[in-house]
Every structure is written in structure tokens, then in C-alpha cells.
Amino acid sequence: MSANVVPEVLKSSRMSEETVKALSSFKDEPGWLTEKRLGAWRAFEALPMPTLRDEAWRYTDISDVSPEDFSPYVPSPDVSSEDDLPHAVQKLIGEGEENSALLVQHNSEATFQRMDDELQNKGVVFTDLHTALLDHEDLIKERLFGLVPEDYDKFSALSAALFAGGSFLYVPRGVDVEVPIQSYRWLDAIGATMPRTLVILEENASVTYIDEYASDGTEEDEPTLSNGAVELYVGQGANLRYVSLQNWGRNVLHFNTIRSEAGKDATINSLVVALGSELSRTNVDAGLAEAGSDSEMLGLYFADSNQVLDHHTLQDHLAPNAHSDLLYKGALRDESLAVFSGLIRVEPGAQKTDAYQTNRNLILGTDDAMAVSLPRLEIQADDVKCSHGSTTGQVDDVELFYLMSRGIPRREAEKLVVFGFFGEVTSRIPLKGLKDKLDRAIEGKIGLGFEERVA
Amino acid sequence: MAEFHKLATVDEVGPGEIKQYLVEDRFVALCNVEGEFHAFEDVCTHQFTHLSEGEFTGSEVKCPLHGAKFDVKTGAAKSLPAVKPVPKHEVKVENGNVYVALNPKRVKIAGRRGRRR
């Protein structure tokens, strides 16, 4: 990457059609992709900015966000070995899950990648999207933008127009990748980062893939935009475990759309975690496209100070005999807001659908936090099993009293209750490193104990 | 002491009228109840919409979306689905002009970025 000089127009502080063209030619992309990007840019310009009057944005006010006013491309430093990576990233890698392949996107570029020889021999491809285009253009042309097209929403259009870096994972038929594959997105500059993930699993393949977003910006820093798109294609009988762990610094506005398509008898287990950022909006759509497909969707979020964490989910049952089970749990403190809006949609003909959806919110010792929960069902078949439920409440005093009566100090008791609450989600993740990471993050967020703040 | 902003001249909003103004990026409704001016945040406390677009009769304004009613003199919610009062702004009339001092309290029906640039 270092051989090419970043065109001046990409360093400008605004996005425009010129920057889209410049990015595409800087990356030496084939004509079809340039056209796609330009079409997406036009779609972005044509689509109105969502307002509080739009159902999907009723509780998340982005009237003071203008996505085009960020610098479209933030250069990355050169990295030749893992030791050159920023210390914070090395720390993340060290604390993270054991991995068989690794990719680091620093700002707008993938700066480091490595993969075990064993995977290479099995035909697994894992690299950034630009490199992948050189060797696997046909595969990418067929699938890229297939699940998150430019007309999905305004932010997806922007992502399609100006994505940079990103990751591409391809697992051939029947290959079972036992050790997780991990990608880190790190940000230490002001501007916009638009990572894009494309995962393709062929028949009976199996893999665990983790996207982790992190930076150490604070509220005092200039705002930064992260606008991602994730497309997960899971073939017949294949098995994908996908984790999206968002722990951005507090100057980041995070928009992400994760959409999957499960083939016949395929299984997708997703986990979407939101801990950081100033404002985060994630759409998670699971498409159960073929009979017998199965999707487990887990979500975990913890909002503090004035964070806004918004999740919109869709369990789209397009075929009969599919199963989906969603569980999103979140804790809120201070003046934060959490939005969950989930829809189970059973399309005509999707008989014998078995779908569940649960959202639970725990409000920690405050009257100023707000949790909005909108579980919805849309059923157009007549032989299905669907249920949905939602609860929002404070920590139960009786539970605290019980623990304290056993000699546990109040602060510890509070922690235990919160860990117990999230345990329902974390116990379903078979990844030890990730679980430990989440436990540490939850503990950090509980901080000094929430009851003290009320008094 | 909050800063007063000039909003309108007294003739701009006649008795029985309600109008919307934008002050410091906030929607402010100014209404005239038999010669007396009242200002409040122009956002329904139930769901986002502008109250000034609703029916205004006597001293009550009715939300155009779901019919929640608010007393413009106190800001109090008078009927469901709204339960929280709408924040009132301080108003003064001087030399034929209406001035308003914004109430720091805001309607919380949606989350936004906390930090203002």
C-alpha cells in the first residue's frame, strides 16, 4: 500500500463523488466496482437523512450527524510485523481469543495479516477486500453488496460507496476451522472508517469469526464515524459463529448493518456486543432462506453516561422448518438510552417455523436512563410457533437483600446480580477468551457501584 | 440567569395562535392565550412530533399524532398518552417584542449525542 501515494482529494474533510472516484482509482479497482460505488454514492445523496419521524429511527436522534462531513479516508501507518502494531492493539490481541488467522485494520487500511499454514493448505482465504479482489474477483463480484445493498438505508449506501480495508473470509466446502479467526479494527485518527466484512462459507464448512472494533478516543476528541457493513453467506449444512464486539472510544459514532443468509440446514450463531461509542446503531438481520436453517442471535449491551445504543433485529423466515432464537440483554446506568426493536417475520409458506425473541433490560440505580423495547411479530403462515417477550426493570432489592444477608457487601452483591443477569447470554458463548473479555468490560462498567450514585 | 432571545414581535402571534421558532437548535412553540404569551419546547413528551402542528384551543394544545393534550400555561400533560409535562420557557415582553429564555430541561423521547460541538 505504501508504494501508492494517497490522492489529495481523499484527504479532504468532506466526502463527494470525487472522493468515491479517487478511492476507486487509488485502489485500482475493476470498472464494475467503480460503477457500483458511484451508484451507491448517488443513492446516498438521494436518500433523505432519517429523522425521528421514521419508525426505524423513532428513538435515536441523529439530526446533528452529517455523515458526509467526515474525512473519507484516514491513512494508516506501515506495519511489517506484529511488533509494529500499536501497543493497544497488541494488548487486544493478547487478551483476545486464540486465533488461527488474524487481520488488523488500522484506520482505513488493513495493515497486518497472518494465517496459519494449515488453513492456507486447506484453501481458506482470509485477507482484506482489496487484496481479495485481485485473486477472487468473480466470487466477490457475485456476493459483495448482495446482502447489504446500497438501497438498504442511507448508511449502507455510504458504506458501499466508500468502504476501505474490510475483510474477506472464504471457507471451502467441508473445511472445519477449529480455531477462531479474528479481525481487529483500530482507529487513532479523526475521520471516517468504513470496514466491510464479507464471509462466504461453502457447504458443510465451519468457522468462528470475530470482528472487534476498538479505539481509545475520549469524549473530548473530535467525533469520528464508523460505518460498517457485514455480509455473511452460509452454505448448506455449514456452521458459522459470528461475533461483533464494538468497544469504540467515546468519540465514535458507530453505524453497522449485519445481514446473513443461511442455506439448507445451516447454522449461524451470532453475538453482537455494544459497549463503547457515543452513539451506536446496529441492524442485525438473519435471513433463514432455506429449510432447516437455524439462527441463534445473542446480543449484549451496557450503556453508561449519555451513550445511545440502538439495535434493530430481524429474523426473516423465508423457508419452512427453520428455527431462530434471539436473546438480547442490556444494562443501563446514568443517563443512557438503549433501543431494541426486533421483528420476527414469517413469510408466506414458511410453515413449521419455530422462532423466539427475548429482550431484557436492567436499569442500574437511576431514573434518567431509558430502555425502549419493541418486540414485534409479523406472521403470514398458519402453522408456526413464535413467541416474543420483553422486560425492563431495576435490580430487585430482594435479591440484593438475600445476598447481603449472606454476608456479601452491597457492592459485591450488585456485581453478582449484574453478572447473573448477563450470564444467560455469556454462558451460551463457547469462547473463553471472549467471555473473560466481556466479564472484564462489564465489571469496568459497573465501576464504583451504581446504588451509590442514587443516594 | 438564562439568556433571553428575541423571538418575535407581539403582532406576529395573535390571540389563539401558535407558532414554531428555532432557538439554539431547539424547537420552541410560542402561543398567545388571550394576549398572554407562553413558550414551551415544541416536542410532544410521548413521541416525537411538533405540538405547534396540533389543534390549539383555549389554553390547551392537542398533539397531532395521538391526541395527547398539554396545558400551555403550566406545561402539564392533561391527557394520555402523554404523562410527562412539556418544559416551559420563560417569556418576557418588552417594547413590542417577545423574548424567551430557554429552559435547560429538555424532552427526552430519543437519544442523541450528548456532546455539543
Q: Could you characterize the architecture of this molecule?
A:
The complex is a heterodimer of chains A (455) and B (117). Chain A has helices at residues 17-26, 31-46, 87-95, 117-122, 129-135, 137-143, 154-162, 397-405, 410-426, 432-446, 451-454; strands spanning 101-106, 109-115, 125-127, 167-171, 181-187, 192-193, 196-201, 206-215, 224-234, 239-247, 252-262, 267-274, 279-288, 294-303, 308-317, 323-332, 337-346, 354-363, 370-379, 385-394. The radius of gyration of chain A is 22 Å and the shape is globular. Chain A has a ten-stranded mixed β-sheet. In chain A, strands 3, 4, 6, 7, 9, 11, 13, 15, 17 and 19 form a ten-stranded mixed β-sheet that branches. Helices cover 24% and strands 36% of the residues of chain A. In chain A, helix 9 runs antiparallel to helix 10. Chain A has eleven helices and 20 strands. By secondary structure, chain A is α/β, with parallel strands linked by helices. The model of chain A has no long low-confidence stretch (mean pLDDT 91). Chain B is mainly beta. Chain B has a single domain (4-101), classed as Rieske Iron-sulfur Protein. Chain B is built from no helices and nine strands. Chain B has strands spanning 4-9, 18-23, 26-33, 36-41, 55-57, 60-62, 69-71, 88-94, 97-101. In chain B, a hairpin with a 2-residue loop joins strand 2 and strand 3 (26-33).
